[in-house]
What we know:
single chain, 25 helices, 7 strands
Amino acid sequence: xxxxxxxxxxxxxxxxxxxxxxxxxxxxxxxxxxxxxxxxxxxxxxxxxxxxxxxxxxxxxxxxxxxxxxxxxxxxxxxxxxxxxxxxxxxxxxxxxxxxxxxxxxxxxxxxxxxxxxxxxxxxxxxxxxxxxxxxxxxxxxxxxxxxxxxxxxxxxxxxxxxxxxxxxxxxxxxxxxxxxxxxxxxxxxxxxxxxxxxxxxxxxxxxxxxxxxxxxxxxxxxxxxxxxxxxxxxxxxxxxxxxxxxxxxxxxxxxxxxxxxxxxxxxxxxxxxxxxxxxxxxxxxxxxxxxxxxxxxxxxxxxxxxxxxxxxxxxxxxxxxxxxxxxxxxxxxxxxxxxxxxxxxxxxxxxxxxxxxxxxxxxxxxxxxxxxxxxxxxxxxxxxxxxxxxxxxxxxxxxxxxxxxxxxxxxxxxxxxxxxxxxxxxxxxxxxxxxxxxxxxxxxxxxxxxxxxxxxxxxxxxxxxxxxxxxxxxxxxxxxxxxxxxxxxxxxxxxxxxxxxxxxxxxxxxxxxxxxxxxxxxxxxxxxxxxxxxxxxxxxxxxxxxxxxxxxxxxxxxxxxxxxxxxxxxxxxxxxxxxxxxxxxxxxxxxxxxxxx
Length: 598
């Protein structure tokens, strides 16, 4: 009973602290784009027509919930960001619940609860929001957990179908994951065969495989077919929906996205693969004393198994140091905890090794491939690997629980004594510490590196209602909101550039841009050719422009000359932005005529 109370208290604390984190900080770039895409659809924009970046695809999963919000709120955005953050929390609690229901078949349920709590406590990029990163990781984890039931039981078509459907949702959230789905199918086939798991245990522990091991069999094939059908049940309808907006539009979005990806180094062939591998190498050798300590613990375990397993209580310290590095933050936690699963497998008791081999084959191995894919296709490189690696935390948590439980198990020649296997306090304490590390990262790191102590002003209006930010950010957006209302007209087509699409959340009218998030390092550079081509194709130009530029040293003439080629005079100038309007005596054709052609 005491063990259960301790586990429930710890898991509840993780959820409560994560809920509190929903109210802290904001981001006008990445997070705003995640929310803005489905919100604009709710306001009437057409997917793949008014937005050309394929990063909009995950919005298909959010749209029904955003549309419901719009209907209830009368298409007012007040509280929208906090609403979607709560949806994020509900999603992660659901994923954690699924992990718990599966893992409790492998470990005591209080320990399983703490293993699952990590999926709530860890927040990718310190942004508790529905995004291609968080939804991709969540549905990968859900698919791995549901598939684990199939692997453990040796079949189960309904569970396999549900697992495949979860992986289909992961592909919708993070489309490049489609290319690693065949690897998941192969690993499921291996994990369903006892011969493969027996051979893996032999490699790790030098023990002969089970002589009764058999290949996959008819039950495994049916489960694998059901898994594939589950994925197709999601991907085929979504594909049809996407194509319904026009093949030419989708092709145009593909071309634009590939151009952006090349510019942002999201792709790069062998050079990018080498950079990702180099990033992993530098990360793990940045603190060589941790590698040395791991080797020493393994040597101690070979001589004194109980003591060696007990030393695994130091793992939370390693996880803490994994995140104490620039740019990594909480993602370093996943890199260490995910990669360390095979190491922890070496400490697993003999009677658990076959089940552990199944976890390695089905959960850990494909997660490594998924992590490599999300790293390769991200501008952030290896730092984005945790999106695919997150499911590996299931295996690491289970292996850690098994190993620490074995510390208190009595030897065959002695009575159980006070250290009964029914009271695995050591495992409980270490898993609580692991979950506590994730919670600490939530408050140690904030979006855009804003110190927690500076978040003192709560929004009382607009889409960020209820969220606490810095006084400077609050004043900036309050002033912008008032200026936008004063400067705008009913039929305006708005353009905001560069880098901060969050300003569009304060706008319900039309948007004149080929993408809600225009990105350019040079705020004085002309508008890109895809944007100009969008104007020509739709025969429109912005009537109102917000130029996000420091204006303190610029004259009105300089601002007009630097309006992206539009040559609009400023109507209102603030220190951090300027409003510029198309002259009333100019036609759309006249503006288009002076924009450069490719």
